[in-house]
Amino acid sequence: MEKIKLYGFNNLTKTLSFNIYDVCYTRTVEERKAYIEYIDDQYNSERLTRILNDVTKIIGANVLNIAKQDYDPQGASVTIMIAEEMVDQSVLDPSCNQGLVPCKESVVGHLDKSHLTVHTYPESHPDQNISTFRVDIDVSTCGKISPIKALDYLIQSFDSDVIIMDYRVRGFTRDLEGNKHYIDHAISSIQDYINEDTLKKYNLIDVNLDHSNIFHTKMMLNQFILDNYIFNVTESDLAEEEKAKIKIDINKEIAEIFYGMNIPHMK
Questions:
Q1: Which of these is catalytic: 17, 119, 189, 216?
Q2: Distance separating alpha carbons of residues 248 and 182, to the nearest angstrom
Q3: Where are the domains of the chain?
């Protein structure tokens, strides 16, 4: 899209909401506990902070402040406040830390128009053998930078059976003649910004309201490799009957998450 000279600041707000699910079959209480402990360790607040810092670099923003927290019994959250341009130290709010997180168990910060947040939700079904791990990431920017540029990196940062994404551009900016512009980059689908090799691994559904600058994409992994869904055992350790049951239960769980509905009978 041709660059337009603007009157004042680019007031467009671009928000990417990125939601992933990982599904695992845990046969015992011990396996369920071990899976959640493993996920909690792999995706603790320190690693999530590194991921969001990388996202900040990819989209060309600058870190102002970081708040992070690991939770008991499980889960973690990270929030990063960002600016489009580097902020001079003399005008920086004293409460900001520019990404230099003190050595504390928790760090308190704040949000502004441009920010990144991540929250994790490891959980297991109380009556069945299914455990799930959900990650919610929101990247909201104002100005020229767009969070959609970091989409491929975010997908590659997690093992995802289901990915649900929303991208929305809000507000408007004005050119020198006073005309309003409601978007400043070309997009017809979130898929436009995802690597082709990644797209081949998933079944996808799009709902795009391009006249309102609202874009929605859901992705469901189209390959089933049993060893990727069992914990602390391998496929060779299982009887054929159990392998068949696991495949049905896992596929049902993934389909329910993808379609957003309970499926009573599925084989």
A1: 119
A2: 46
A3: 13-259
Q: How confident is the model at residue 136 (pLDDT cuts 50, 70, 90)?
A: very high
Coil, strand, or helix at residue 85?
A: coil
Q: How far apart are CA 114 and CA 124, in angstroms?
A: 34
Q: Is 119 a catalytic residue?
A: yes
Look over the chain and give the mean of its residue pLDDT values, rounded to a whole number: 84
Nearest to 162 by CA among 120, 215, 123, 201: 201
Half-sphere exposure of 136 (CA within 13 A, CB side): 8
Q: CATH number for 13-259: choose from 3.40.50.2300, 1.20.120.80, 3.60.90.10, 1.10.1740.10.
A: 3.60.90.10
Residues 6+ away with beta carbon under 8 Å from 100: none
Would residue 142 show up in a list of annotated catalytic residues for this protein? Answer: yes
3-state secondary structure 129-153: CEEEEEEEEEEEEECCCCHHHHHHH
Q: Which of 24, 45, 96, 114 is catalytic?
A: 114
Determine the average pLDDT of the residues in 30-36. Answer: 88
- Rg of the chain taking only CA atoms, in angstroms: 21
DSSP β-ladder status, 115-124 and 76-83: antiparallel
106 tagged catalytic: no
Task: Kindly report the pTM of this predicted structure.
Answer: 0.84
Give the confidence band of 266 by pLDDT, cuts at 50, 70, 90: low
